């Protein structure tokens, strides 16, 4: 009952309230793990389910669950996330393909299963020279309505067989058999990938020379350029199968979960612990998280809490939690604070969102607004997806050790600052705008507020040295102001 339901009765898609997810720490109980279903949840049974394995293998077979669990097994903690995590921010810019996700479409579990390379060795996968280049996974027929009725994905052999990435057919989560909504009795687990590439209820595996063409493998999980504003645009440009737009490994991302949306605190000289999560893809560790209170003029380094030890190849598959102590008096004066994360290749979250048709891989700085209530302040996240403000007007809120700023009717004081300011958000970020050119456009205009604030008053020396670089730069700032 605590889960935020995102798509009504069917299919079942949900995420935990962010503060509830926060309070459970590193590992997420199955009952709070986000759920992404594209159709029916199949009714399968351990003793009767089997995986049909065929194609370029020496020993095609139906592998039962009893046979599967006799193969070598591993247990690995892995954070899963939906590629649509934080999609509501994108949908407020312009509604794309896909329902709203908040920032809780990420969860961490200890997964237990059989490594894919062991399964493929067991059935005698043929050599690359013999054409065995792609491994295709699919759910039972009838799960979804599009294509052939299966949800599938096609993965390169070198990824599935890579001994440094613990890809597996998983049958347990946190020491228990999978919950039906998470793939019981067996699912594909590809650490570092987005959740949409990890097939649940695996029923068939085929080894082929060419990449598979399952409907959901081709027509889902893509990040198209901003000008592709409809499915028809992608079809017209013939880019559905272009690998340049395919999502496999996730990107770096972070979010703030404390303070919660609409939480309020008394203004004082005490410190407040701003907290959140961060994750990266492809096994890359998160190396740095930092918070700004003045729109990137200064950054405060956060303390990173790591729960896993990098594997022998230096890889990490889980989120980190981070925190930074900030005086409440400073928060009261800042108007907005934001977080960004960096991975071990110095990849960093972008400052701005870039809209894409499917609203996927959204990872700009996570910004929280700060508002005054006299001797208190309250905090406003970019979006929220709680049940009270979507499917059930009588649903309870879920504060966790927080006092919330509410309206007289008991509702949250804000739907989120991006929704409150949606006209401005669309004016700045929406696709389809003409390519207007302006000779005054550029860095000077974008940062004019900083230039005005930091530019010293002209002195006699500066006036005498009007030809120097500093004076010229100041003059340029002045010409660029509006």
Q: What do the pLDDT scores average to?
A: 92
Overall 3D geometry?
A: globular
- Please give the order of strands in the largest beta sheet: 15-23-22-21-17-18
Query: How far is the first residue's CA from the last residue's CA?
Result: 51 Å
Instruction: Please describe the biggest sheet, giving its number of strands, its sense, and whether it closes into a barrel.
Output: 6 strands, antiparallel
Strand content: 15-25%
Please state the CA-atom Rg, rounded to the nearest Å.
25 Å
Structural class: alpha+beta
Describe the structure.
The protein is of the alpha+beta class. Helix content is 18%, strand content 25%. The chain has 14 helices and 23 strands. The strands form 5 sheets. Strands 15-23-22-21-17-18 form a 6-stranded antiparallel sheet. A hairpin with a 5-residue loop joins strand 4 and strand 5 (61-64). The longest helix is centred in the last third of the chain and has 12 residues, at 469-480. It is globular and about 70 Å long.
Summary tags:
alpha+beta; 482 residues; six-stranded antiparallel beta sheet; 14 helices; 18% helix; disordered C terminus
Which secondary structure elements does this structure contain, and how are they paired or packed?
Blueprint (H helix, E strand, L loop, with lengths): L3 E2 L7 E3 L2 H6 L11 E2 L13 E6 L5 E4 H4 L5 E8 L5 H7 L12 E10 H7 L11 E5 L13 E5 H4 L7 E6 L2 E2 L9 E3 L14 E5 L6 H4 L12 H6 L16 E6 L5 E3 L4 E9 L6 E7 L7 E2 L1 E3 L14 E8 H7 L1 E8 L22 E7 L3 E5 L36 H4 L1 H8 L13 H4 L1 H7 L5 H5 L4 H12 L2
Parallel strand pairs: 4-13
Antiparallel strand pairs: 1-2, 2-3, 4-5, 6-7, 7-10, 8-9, 8-13, 10-11, 10-12, 14-16, 15-23, 16-20, 17-18, 17-21, 19-20, 21-22, 22-23
């Amino acid at each position: 009952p605590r889960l935020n339901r995102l798509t009504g009765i069917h299919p079942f898609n949900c995420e935990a309230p962010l503060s509830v997810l926060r309070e459970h720490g590193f590992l997420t109980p199955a009952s709070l793990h986000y759920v992404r279903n594209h159709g029916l949840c199949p009714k399968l049974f351990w003793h009767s389910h089997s995986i049909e394995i065929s194609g370029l293998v020496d020993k095609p077979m139906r592998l039962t669950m009893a046979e599967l669990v006799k193969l070598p097994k591993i247990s690995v903690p892995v954070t899963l996330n939906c590629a649509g995590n934080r999609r509501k921010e994108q949908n407020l810019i312009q509604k794309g393909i896909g329902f709203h996700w908040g920032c809780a479409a990420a969860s961490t579990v200890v997964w237990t299963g059989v490594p894919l390379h062991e399964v493929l060795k067991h059935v005698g996968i043929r050599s690359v020279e013999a054409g065995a280049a792609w491994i295709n996974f699919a759910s039972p027929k009838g799960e979804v309505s599009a294509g052939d009725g299966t949800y599938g994905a096609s993965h390169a052999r070198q990824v599935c067989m890579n001994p440094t990435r613990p890809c597996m057919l998983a049958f347990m989560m946190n020491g228990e058999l999978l919950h039906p909504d998470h793939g019981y009795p067996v699912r594909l687990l590809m650490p570092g990938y987005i959740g949409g590439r990890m097939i649940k209820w695996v029923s068939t595996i085929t080894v082929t020379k060419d990449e598979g063409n399952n409907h959901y493998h081709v027509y889902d999980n893509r990040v198209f350029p901003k000008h592709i504003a409809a499915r028809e645009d992608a079809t017209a440009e013939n880019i559905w199968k272009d690998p340049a737009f395919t999502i496999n490994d996730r990107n770096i991302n972070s979010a703030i979960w404390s303070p919660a949306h609409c939480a309020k605190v008394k203004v004082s000289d005490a410190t407040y612990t701003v907290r959140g999560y961060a994750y990266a893809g492809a096994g890359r560790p998160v190396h740095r998280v930092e918070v700004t209170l003045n729109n990137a003029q200064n950054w405060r380094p956060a303390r990173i809490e790591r729960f896993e030890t990098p594997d022998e190849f230096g890889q990490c598959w889980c989120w980190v939690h981070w925190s930074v102590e900030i005086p409440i008096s400073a928060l009261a004066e800042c108007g907005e604070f934001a977080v960004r994360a960096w991975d071990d290749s110095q990849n960093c979250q972008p400052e701005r969102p870039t809209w894409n048709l499917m609203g996927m891989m959204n990872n700009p700085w996570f910004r929280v607004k700060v508002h005054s209530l006299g001797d208190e302040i309250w905090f406003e996240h970019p979006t929220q997806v709680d049940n009270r403000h979507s499917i059930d007007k009588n649903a309870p809120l879920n504060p966790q050790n927080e006092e919330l700023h509410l309206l007289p009717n008991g509702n949250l004081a804000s739907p989120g600052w991006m929704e409150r300011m949606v006209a401005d958000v669309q004016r700045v970020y929406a696709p389809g705008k003409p390519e207007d050119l302006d000779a005054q456009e550029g860095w000077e205009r974008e940062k004019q507020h900083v230039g005005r604030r930091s530019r010293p008053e002209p002195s006699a020396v500066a006036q005498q040295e009007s030809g120097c670089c500093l004076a010229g730069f100041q003059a340029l700032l002045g010409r660029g102001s509006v």
